[in-house]
Write a structure and sequence with these properties.
The protein is α/β, with parallel strands linked by helices and about 200 residues long. It has helices at about 15-25, 40-50, 115-130, 160-170; strands at about 5, 30-35, 55-60, 70, 75-85, 90-95, 100-110, 135-140. Helix 3 (about 115-130) packs parallel to helix 4 (about 160-170).
């Protein structure tokens, strides 16, 4: 099963809209998770209607940032039990091609410490209550596990980083290396002030 995770930074901007649709036609994915869609649920559903062969669900952005979406290929998977909050969408995934089944959380992490702590606690509780060891928690956490996941910027181990590590340990998750490597986010600045994570 192939899963693509994409901080799209505004799904409904016309050029981004076209780029995503072109990408959907090329990739062999079963699930595509979007963070920072910057759109409302209605716009997200309208977008799915223009994507031939895909189904999906969206969570509203709050103000000029945030927003989540999950698209899936209904020929290869079934999706059920969709739940949403401002920072996540969760659902049960069942493959139509084999017997694999798991819970999926698509995350767009908050930037403030208090909200991050609450998110980690809520997710930990949900995963424990699900009673399953088969789950994927993926997305843009707005946090890193280790300084090696950051290029430039402040090089200190923050309280937020330690809290995130603790969350990953509590849920007994494995930190997977992306197939296309690290440093997919940038602050879009030039020269030495450019930071990538």
């Amino acid at each position: 099963m192939n899963i693509l995770n994409w901080n799209v930074r505004g799904l409904m901007a016309p050029e981004r809209h076209r780029m995503v649709k072109r990408h959907l036609e090329k990739v062999a994915c079963d699930i595509i998770m979007f963070q920072e869609t910057k759109c409302c649920t209605t716009d997200g559903e309208r977008f799915v209607n223009h994507c031939r062969g895909w189904m999906g669900t969206f969570q509203n952005a709050e103000g000029p940032s945030g927003g989540l979406g999950i698209l899936w290929n209904p020929n290869t998977i079934n999706v059920s039990g969709v739940n949403k909050s401002k920072n996540w969408i969760s659902c049960q995934i069942q493959s139509k091609l084999n017997t694999s089944s798991f819970l999926l959380w698509s995350i767009y992490g908050p930037s403030h410490t208090v909200e991050k702590t609450k998110l980690w606690e809520d997710l930990n509780q949900q995963i424990r209550q699900s009673g399953t060891k088969k789950f994927i928690v993926e997305g843009d956490f707005n946090e890193i596990m280790d300084l090696s996941e950051k290029n430039r910027g402040m090089s200190i181990i923050s309280r937020d980083m330690l809290d995130f590590r603790e969350f990953v340990q509590k849920i007994e998750a494995v930190d997977c290396i992306p197939s296309e490597g690290w440093f997919k986010w940038t602050n879009r600045r030039m020269g030495f002030t450019n930071i990538t994570e």
